Amino acid sequence: MKRKFNITGACNPQKHYMVPLDDRLEKIKTDYIDEGSYFIINKGRQYGKTTTLSALEKYLKNNYLVLSLDFQEIGTEDFADASTFSKVFARMIIETFEIAEPRNGQEALSPLANMAKNPNASSLKELFTCLSKMCANALKPVVLMIDEVDSASNNQVFIDFLAQLRSYYLAREKKPIFYSVILAGVYDIKNLKLKLRPDAEHKYNSPWNIAAKFNIDMNFSAKQITSMLAEYENDRHTGMDAKKVSECIYEYTSGYPYLVSAICKRLDEDMPENPYLKSITDVWSERGISEAVKSMLIEQEPFFESMVRQLGEYPEMKKMLKAILFSGKRISYNPDISAINLAAMFGYIVNAEGSIQVANRIFEMRLYNLFLAEEELSNAIYDRAQGNKSQFINDGRLDMDLVIEKFVQYFHDIYGEKEEKFLEEYGRKFFLLYLKPIINGTGNYYIEAQTRDARRTDVIIDYLGEQFIVELKIWHGSEYNKRGEKQLSDYLDYYHKDKGYMISFNFNKNKKIGIQEIKVGNRTIIEAVV
Question: Is 176 in the same domain as 233?
Fold first, then answer.
């Protein structure tokens, strides 16, 4: 059977192309399982949690009895009360135990089986008494894994279950219990937001302060992606440069597992039909990756629909992300701030040397598109570009000189009388609103995160394989402008480009609006002042 790239459910190395997980599994075993830790794998959606747990279950089976549960299998009615939950949980443990260790099942499971069959009410205390006996009679140390554990989070019975688990952990030298426990989910159950009654306030309440901090990097490295693509190349013989392709995919994704697999899946299944890609080698190239990313940014997918929904549910998080993207605002990473904690928990941001940064280029592009789309219908400069966009394309190429020229004209006509504070906050947003309809459907753009701050932002525009570098900055005097020209020239060297563009938002009353062409070394810079 031909293997494929998988973006739905757990990956199976017999069916799917996967990055090698052995190093990660060994580190989890050595640093956590062997130490008897109780810990949480708390990562965003489709971050590879289920695949990791599945692989870890097989990896540990020679040394441990692994009981792997999925709380998505438990319905709301199963949390009706402690007795109902205890019986449901007992039956799940019995079923999993019998599959994992059929020879030892009857003796070890007898107390739990009797409790599950008892028609009378059961309690969590009785459940844990039986679980303790099971662990004492098991032939190997018992490891409990619970996936999608946060699906049960808004429930008092679950909180009480965690309290019992914690109590037995603290007393485990006297009362046998699970040797190690892994709980996996998106939401951090150390800080569950629990609503106990319909009329009650939401309260943080979770007795899970025993959890060891999980420090394993779940992102894929460029090297791991290369290993996966090398296997694909051995099967398909595309002629790709696996290392170069992997590095390009990593630049877009920062190794976010779902995004890596989604790009590869599109390259494998969709991009061979792309009219701009002439061969399978073109598909597995930087150009092909750009086309795959472009399709990801314009299509509806459950993964991104979840992002949009969460932004609607948490307006402070949305406000924070807008401030980072459009204003270049530097926000210190502080997990005690609710909006920051949520964004990090969902995987949308990372801690970059003490400041918040959007986690990867694709998230950033998708967020820009979302935030800009919310303003398109009411924005005058978008209307100007939308109404005249055909003039910017000549023989299938983007005329960037004309794009810059018309932006200066339109911007001055529409916003020339606005005050400094308004322009400083929104100027860069207006350029992106202006650019979007011009390249929409054919090209895309991203922001170079290393140069995005309150003073400077570099926009990298890709139109049918041709790249343009545009620096957007606030005017802070001639000396600062000279340094900006030199920085842009150096950046052009990095991208092997002879020509770049600079737009300065100048708030001086006697400023000279317009465009000039200057030379910095052997590079040409088209410099616009608005």
Answer: no
